[in-house]
Amino acid sequence: MSTTPTVSVVVPTFQRRASLARLLDALASQTRDADFEVVVVDDGSRDDTRAWLRGYRAPYPLRVLQQANGGPATARNRGVNDARGDVIVFLDDDVVPAPDAVSVHAAAHRGSLDRVVVGPMLPPASWRRPSWVRWEEQKLLSQYEAMSSGRYPCSYRQFFTGNASLRRDRFIAAGGFDPSFDRAEDVELGYRLSRGGSQFTFEPAARVWHYPSRSFATWKRTPFRYGRADVAMYRDKGQETLAFAYREVANRHPFTRALIRFCLGSNIRSNVAVTTLSWVVRAADALHVDRLANASLSALFHVLYWHGVCHEVGGRRRLREAITGDPLLHRIASGGVGTPGMGRSE
Question: Within 10 Å of residue 250's Cβ, how many Cβ atoms?
């Protein structure tokens, strides 16, 4: 078990030929402490990705799979099914790995069959991006710092497949990604892996630099989908779904908690809050008032996240029934102190 395992780097891609080229070129500079192949799954791109891949010549084994557009879960499943390595390293097509990133991932699995490794996605030093992208970067960096210092353990909530790895046989045994999740499909798989006994490890040396290109409209669709996904993911645990979410709320800023309660279950109030906060974010971003932009983005994220939770639970009445019928939830919702959590909405 001391031999460094072979690796398959699985990359789903859709309509990002330029960033995919940057990633594949960066993989050419990897140290060769571990044998690796790269499996690219073109998820129905309609730009020139397919033609460009046919002409690309890599200095490492490269296989290109093509499919009709089915989303990242389906694309990653297809890539793993065709992969030949012992270990799967998932990379997104908008990252640039450090020269030893693949080797670090491979070494982390030496002697272990049940380890899931999460590497950091770091912001590039000099790269202009809007405030909502910087907000996400700051949230990730705070999680990395907390895990590195031992204040918070790495768990399935940090299983972000922009930069993560696990044994191929464990992936297959867990059933792969659930294609019914159009968001948080990686965390949902991490949840099942965790229940199956996998141990999650944060490896700071397995670095990649992240170059996301995300519009504000796209960013705003994300928290609603996360809220729905969290409820769906925990549905078999009943009210523990809501207990987890309310523990998250209990440690938010008092304004954010009040805003969530005000908007919860009301499309009209939620729309007013989202419209107002969106205007503030855009104005603060244009004027480079970072503190105001960050505060508004945090409030906006939580309003949209809880709108998704309420939608998936079945409405405000169902949510209130669950809260009233559970002493823990009632205490938290009334302002009691919950257990700190850390995840997508942190």
Answer: 18
46 Cβ contact list (under 8 Å, min separation 6): 15
Q: Give, for 263, the enclosing helix (H) or strand (E).
A: helix 254-263
The helix or strand, by DSSP H or E, that contains position 59, with its residue range, turns out to be none
Tokens found for residue 14: 């859709």
pTM (whole model) above 0.85: yes
Distances (CA, A) of 289 to 75, 163, 248, 280, 296: 39, 31, 27, 10, 11
d(CA 136, CA 11): 22
Angle at 251 between CA 246 and CA 253, to 5 degrees: 115
In the chain, what is the straight-line distance between the N-terminal and C-terminal CA atoms, in Å? 38
Both structure tokens of 53: 């891949």
For the chain (346 residues), the mean pLDDT of every run of 10, in chain order, is 75 95 95 86 94 93 94 96 96 97 95 92 90 94 94 91 96 94 88 93 97 92 87 62 57 75 83 95 95 94 87 73 52 39 43
Quote the strand ranges of the chain, DSSP E. Answer: 7-13, 36-43, 62-67, 87-91, 95-97, 115-118, 121-122, 163-167, 199-202, 208-210
Exposed/middle/buried for 291, CB within 10 Å: 0-12, 13-18, 19+? exposed
Q: What string of DSSP letters covers 166-182?
A: EEHHHHHHHT---TT-S
> Could you give all domains of the chain from N- to C-terminal order, each with its CATH number?
7-210 (3.90.550.10), 216-333 (no CATH)
CA-nearest of 300, 295, 73, 34 to 190 is: 73
